[in-house]
Amino acid sequence: MKRMGLFGLMGMAAVMLLSFPVAALAAEDVSTEADEPAVTDSSSGMVYEAEDALCIGNVHTDTSAEGFEGTGYVTGFSEEGDACTFTISVDTDGFYDLNFVSASMGGYKENYVIVDGENLGTVAIEEESFSDSVMKRAYLSAGAHEVTYSEYWGWVVLDRLEVTPSEALDTSIYDVSATLVNENATDNAKRLMSYLADNYGSSILSGQYSENGQYGKEFTVVYRETGKYPAILGLDFIEYSPSRAENGSTSNATEYAIQFWENGGIVTFCWHWNAPSKYLTSEWYNGFYVEGTNIDLAAIMNGEDEEGYQLLLEDIAAIAEQLLILQDAGVPVLWRPLHEASGGWFWWGASGAEAYKQLYILLYEQLTDVYGLNNLIWVWNGQDADWYPGDEYVDIIGEDIYPGERVYTSQVDTYLQAVNYTSPAKMVVLSENGCVFDPELAVRDGAMWGFWCTWGGEFVAKSMAIYAYNDTYTESEMLVKAYESDVVITLDELPDLTTYTIRD
Ligand code: CA
Fold first, then answer.
1. Of 8, 139, 172, 452, which has the fewest CB atoms closer than 10 Å, so is most exposed?
2. Could you give the CA distance from residue 34 to residue 172 in angstroms, rounded to a whole number?
3. Helices marked H in 53-146
4. Residue 203 host element (H or E)
C-alpha cells in the first residue's frame, strides 16, 4: 500500500530549491511562423509551445532560464489545480507519444497528464535542464484534443509539448519465459508460472487484497457486486513481523492462503515488514514506515550494525516459518517482498538502491538456500530500473499504481516502462491498484498486465460492519465490466493448477 500523503512533503522539500540551473540546450532548428506561434510542424511531429497554451492557477510565463524554445516557458506548478492545457489536433486515429519538454526545479518530480478530461497517469522529470518527459501511447482519435499537464508534485518548468505518432508495439514483450529463477522450484510453482506465461498477453487475471481471505469483506463485496470471485487473493505477512507479534498481533493469513488454494485460487503475499523493536521510534504499528523507525539499512548491510543484521535474520526466520507451512501444503506463492522500495516511504527503501538490493538478495538467499523455500515466484516491486537486483532474482515485475478516483485508463506508459527494466522482457503485473482499469482499454493500448490486485479496505468496501461496496474508486458498472470481460480471468475460470502442464 502506497501512502499518498507523502507526496505533499516532497513538494515542500522542493521549495528549498527554487534556484535551479537550466543549461542551454542545443536547440533543434524548428521553423516558426510569426502569426501562428502555437503549433509548429517539425520533422518528428507537432510542437505546441507552453507559453501559448491555456494556463491556470499559479502557472505563468517566464523567460529567465536558458534553453527554451519559442518565446518562453511556463512555471508556477505549486499546488493542486495548477495546470497548462494544450489544444492539439491529429489527422488520424492512433497512438501518440506526448513529450512534455520540461525541467525539474530539484530532483525527481511527477506530474499528471490528462487528455480530454481523462487522467492518463503521470510523467516524470529529473533533469534540471529542459529534457524529454514522455507519456507513451496515448490513444487519440482524429481531430482536436485537450492535453493538460497538471500539478501533482509540481516544481517543474514546462517549455513545450511535442506530439509524435508512437512506434508500433513490439508484441514479443508478451513472449516471456516460464522458467523460474529458482532451479529447485516446486512443480506447483512451475505449473502456476507456466499458466501465467501461457495467458500473458491475451488475458488478465483479476485479483483482490482481502485480509480475511476468500470470505472476508473485500472478496464478499466483489462477489456480491459481480457474481464472481477474483482469481488471485492478496494477503500480507505484516502481523507475523516479530515486533508486532510481541505487541499481541495475530494473523490467519497463512490459513486463508491454504484455504483459497484448496478452493482453486492463486495467492500473492506482500510483507509490510515491521522493523525490529529496537528501531521503532513511534507507535509500534507504524514500524514499516520510514517515519516510524530509525533503522539505518545501509549501516546494517555494510556490516556496521551486526546486531541489526541478526535482528533482520530473525525477522526473516519468522516469515520463512509461514512460507514453509504454505510449501508443505503445496501452495505456490506470488511473493512480493520489500515493495515500493524506490518510493522511499518504507524503511527498506530509505537507504537508497544499493542497500535495498543487498537486502533483497539476502532475503532471496535466506529463503531459497537456507530455508529451502521452492514454492515462491519472486515478484520484484522496486519500481525503478536502478533498484533492479538482477535477472537471477526476479520472476515477475510488479508496479503499484493509485491514479486517484474512477480513473480507468490502462496505465500503458508505466506498463511499458516496467517492460523495459530488463531485456528480454519479464512478465509485468499491476501488483497493487486503487481503481480497476477498463480491460477494453488495456487490450486497445497493449497494456496486458498479467494480473491486477486491488488493495483492500476503502478501495472496494465501505468502512462499516455491514459489507457494502464502495464505488468511490471504481464504479459498480466498471467493476462488473471488468469481471465479466472475456479477457479477464476470474476464480471460476482457472484450470486445475495442481495438474497444469509445465512449460519447457
Ligand atoms: Ca516554449
1. 172
2. 46
3. none
4. none
Known catalytic residues? 340, 432
User: Which residues have a beta carbon within 5 Å of ligand 1, which is an ion?
Assistant: 49, 68-70, 73, 159-160
First to last CA, the chain: 35
List, for residues 326-378, the tens digit of each pLDDT value.
Answer: 999 999 999 999 999 999 999 999 999 999 999 999 999 999 999 999 999 99
**What is the DSSP track for 272-334?**
--PPPGGGB-S-GGGTTBGGGB---HHHHHTTS-HHHHHHHHHHHHHHHHHHHHHHHTT--EE
In this prediction, residue 463 carries a pLDDT of 85
Q: What is the mean pLDDT of the chain?
A: 92
Q: Residue 28 is placed in which grid cell?
A: 533543434
Cα(139) to centroid(ligand 1), Å: 24
Span from the CA of 155 to the centroid of ligand 1 (angstroms):
17
In the structure grid, which three cell numbers stand for residue 394, read together?
Answer: 526476479
Give me ligand 1 centre to Cα 100, in Å. Answer: 11
* Long-range pairs, 316-321, Cβ under 8 A, ≥24: 316/362, 316/363, 316/366, 316/367, 317/371, 318/240, 318/241, 318/242, 318/245, 319/237, 319/240, 319/241, 319/271, 320/366, 320/367, 320/370, 320/371, 320/373, 321/240
Average pLDDT over residues 98-112: 96
Tell me how far apart the alpha carbons of residues 448 and 442 are, in angstroms, rounded to a whole number: 6
**Span from the CA of 107 to the centroid of ligand 1 (angstroms):** 21
